[in-house]
Design a protein that fits this description.
Layout (H helix, E strand, L loop, with lengths): L8 E5 L4 H12 L5 E4 L7 H6 L7 E4 L3 E4 L1 H11 L9 H26 L3 H21 L13 H20 L8 H11 L2 H4 L6 H10 L4 H10 L6
Parallel strand pairs: 1-2
Antiparallel strand pairs: 1-3, 3-4
Helix pairs in contact: 1-3, 1-6, 4-5, 4-6, 9-10
The chain binds glutathione.
Glutathione (GSH) binds next to helix 1 and helix 3.
Length: about 230
């Protein structure tokens, strides 16, 4: 990491967004100074609508003038600009790493389908689809602490938010969500105890996510409502 930081970095964020968490972990991992501004996505400020071409967080504003959007691009920019070495330098391995970051994004779509599933049948179908993704991931993991070996990389920042969701889902469902896949479980523990991963969210994240889910009229939403207000019948 360079000791002088040439650019002023502002990350426009949301408290629960998994894509934001990727960028925060990269910044934290490298001790970079940045300002984080969390916005309400249900009531986007006008200045945000002006700045964000896709209306999505995260966006990184560099030196109050250049807007970078898309979490993968933001992470790679930080990696390149600050030489953080969180992607392999060798083109083939780098491409493989980027491909798995895309896989993490596909899993986030599976997670959205899961928590929006309107009834138990659709929930279980979504759960099956997500577990299939995890099984495929297990086959591609090595017996190492992180995805690419002993070093924490951009891939790890992309998967950590997925495991954070799983922690909350297991609590709400009161059962293990993942089958016992040893490499996956080892990786999950290593990711969630990494300080840069912890710093990506507010300590109140589990409750904030539960409240977000409880606002949904979905199968998981109703379970979340029950966990917040156990007396109220579903
Ligand atoms: N491909 C984007 C996805 C970002 C994304 O979907 N962000 C969500 C929040 S997690 C968002 O801002 N959605 C806009 C909205 O809810 O209106 C990335 O990697 O940055």
């Amino acid at each position: 990491m360079s000791t002088t930081q040439p650019n002023q970095l502002t990350l426009i964020s949301h408290k629960l967004c998994p894509y934001v968490q990727r960028a925060v972990s990269v910044l934290e991992e490298n001790g970079l100074a940045y300002k984080r501004i969390d916005i309400d996505l249900a009531n986007k400020p006008d200045w945000f609508k002006t700045l964000s071409p896709l209306g999505k967080v995260p966006i990184l504003v560099v030196d109050d003038e250049t807007v970078i959007f898309e979490s993968a691009v933001i992470s790679e920019y930080i990696n390149d600009a600050y030489q953080t070495h969180m992607l392999d330098e060798q083109p083939l391995e780098k491409a493989r790493q980027r491909a798995w970051i895309e896989y993490a994004s596909a899993m986030l779509n599976n997670i959205g389908q899961l928590y929006n599933a309107e009834d138990e049948k659709n929930f279980l179908l979504a759960e099956r689809a997500l577990k299939d993704r995890f099984s495929r991931l297990e086959l591609n993991l090595k017996a190492t602490d992180y995805f690419s070996g002993a070093t924490f990389s951009l891939i790890d920042t992309a998967f950590a938010p997925i495991f954070r969701y799983i922690d909350v889902f297991e609590k709400l469902l009161d059962r293990p969500f993942l089958p016992h896949q040893p490499r996956l479980q080892h990786w999950r523990q290593n990711l969630l105890r990494r300080p840069s991963v912890k710093k990506a969210v507010d300590p109140a994240y589990p409750m904030l996510l539960t409240e977000f889910l409880a606002a949904k009229n979905s199968y998981l939403g109703k379970i979340a409502q029950q966990s917040i207000n156990p007396r109220k019948s579903a």
